[in-house]
Amino acid sequence: MPMAAAEIEDLIKAGIPDARVEITDLAGDGDHYAARVVAPMFKGMPRVRQHQAVYAALGGRMGGVLHALQLTTEAPLEE
């Protein structure tokens, strides 16, 4: 059973509470998503560690109930 975009967003925000999350359903099938996650905790963190933090927030659902996730992560721009 596919995951809803809102559920993905909720899981990421629960694991990274100060994150801004944008989810896009890439294929309209509920199985292929893109996520853009912007979080202050990512500042100075290598991209691979940023992605690991998002995967940890998803609680092992990647590759299972969540089939595909195109992930973009970044720290917010300082103003």
TrEMBL record:
InterPro entries documented for this protein: BolA, BolA-like_sf, BolA/IbaG_stress_morph_reg
Family in the record: Belongs to the BolA/IbaG family.
Protein name (database record): Stress-induced morphogen
UniProt source species: Sphingomonas leidyi
